[in-house]
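Async update (no meeting this week)

Hi team, since we skipped the sync, here's where things stand on the single-chain job. The sequence we agreed to prioritize is pasted below, unchanged from the tracker. I ran it this morning and attached the output directly underneath so nobody has to dig for it. Comments welcome in thread, and please keep replies under the output.
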Amino acid sequence: MKTNIGHLEAAAGIAGLLTTVLAMDHGLVPPNPHLRQPNRHLRLDGTPLILADGAARPWAPVPDESGRPVRRAGVSSFGFGGSNAHVVLQTGGLPRGGTAPVTAGGPFVVPLSARDERTLADYRTRLADALDRDPGLRLDQVARTLQAGREELPHRLAVVASDRAGLIAALRDTDSQTVYRGVVTGQAADGPTGAGPADLAAGWCTGHAVDWDALWPVPPGRVSLPVPGFTRTAHWFPRAADEAPAGTAAGSVAAGPRRSADGRVLLTPLGPEEPHRSRSVPVAAPGPEAPGAPRTAPGADTVRERVAAALGLPPDEIGDQDSLTALGLDSIMRVELVRWLHDRHGITVPTSELYEHDTLAGLTAYLDAAPPAPEPVTAVAAGPPPGPASVPVTSAEPTDEPTHEPTHEPAPEAAPATEPLPTPPPRPRRPRIRSPIRSLSSALPWNGPWTPTSAPTAASPTAR
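Output:
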């Protein structure tokens, strides 16, 4: 990815995933355009690995366990923010132009789901248009793709169809007797009571879990079909006039941002930068928090609002069982959450525990039993402790250094502290250690001055 489009930071993982999916779909391996000379330490001889250099090369499929030709690839994402992920991809359908035998007869259950009713209506229309454009799409492959290849979202619609024409008509006319609808708000219940297609469709729309794989003795290949669209949520400032704040006289207009003709907020250019405040102006430092603050475990709503603020999402879009990792809570956000729990609620939580408890329900239950934060340690400035510094050290060997008798002078009065940090106590003086080499040299018989006129002997240092 970097050799083609450079560094993408947070988008690097999804860009690599999409590039790999496109390469698998087209059966081509894209090259690295700026690769001229491989690293001399790279040893690929005798391995199945090759460099993607030069031009795009064909990507031949390999047979899987059942003999079906597939393509496999691995995508790695190692980000600065702490992401460390590797995903293995495999083509799930037939190669372009391939066919598969019909393995089951109708009628088939065709399930569709989306996050809201408006998105579901658009999804239903786009699927009907795709079936009209491509007459080669078989009904069994369409049903299998939508059963096993789509996420099950709250707003659901299921069609029981025996042919393509009946499916298209039901998608465009939801009043048909073969269309079932429902909205699932809680956890999936047990399987439906009946095993017929109508029972499965009705049960799935009301939240029952359906084992789709059990319906296919030999699953047909998947096909390319539309997916649910994104929910369109506007994030502009409200265009309606805001309510007057408390204390505003009746009939007066509260000051607000300037808006354009279409209602958008107009930004005001900044003026010249203000000069920096002089360093001589005293600025009151924020006082430390009172030690021994009571430990207060935050409730689920408080944690939900904090997580929603970090993710930029409305709090009501975060469910108790939703994965925080899937919602986008990365390692940096988790560190800020740990700091907030410590500063505001007096709870010490390792960052790793936020990965172990990845839902609001699990995290709230863990915080109720989490240990409180340790008490802050206040350093007190004091005189030098009694020890080697206050005891004179004597040595049998005379030294040229002057000796000082210990004096006991009263400590000066401490000046008022101007910094929040206390002054560290003075370091104690280390006692003098007598060198063993010097003591040995003084005890040798040849110790003394050496002159050039004296001849080296066996006892002299030169001979040694």
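Quick observations from my side:
The CA atoms of residues 383 and 409 lie 12 Å apart.
The radius of gyration is 38 Å.
Reply here if anything looks off.
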